[in-house]
Write a structure and sequence with these properties.
Elements: H1 6-11, E1 21-24, E2 27-30, E3 41-45, E4 48-49, H2 54-67
Antiparallel strand pairs: 1-2, 2-3, 3-4
């Protein structure tokens, strides 16, 4: 499980709620719930927190998956 340093964790904030984040396993979780009542979760890949709002995360994954399929 990649561990985010305490120094970095102390300055990171949820991009949606602006609340501090806490690490739970392989994810960072907003300490305050969003408007829908759920706490937003952000994955950590290769030690890097992916702090994209949920609607943008799906688009980012779709865009990057297509880049590796073709060769120039």
């Amino acid at each position: 499980m990649p561990k985010v340093s305490p120094e970095l964790l102390s300055i990171l904030r949820c991009p949606v709620t602006g609340s501090p984040l806490v690490q739970e396993g392989d994810e960072l979780v907003a300490s305050v719930a969003a408007a829908d009542g759920e706490k937003l979760r952000y994955s950590i890949e290769d030690g890097i927190p992916l702090l994209l709002p949920p609607e943008m995360l799906a688009a980012a994954h779709a865009a990057t998956s297509g880049q590796h399929d073709s060769k120039a």
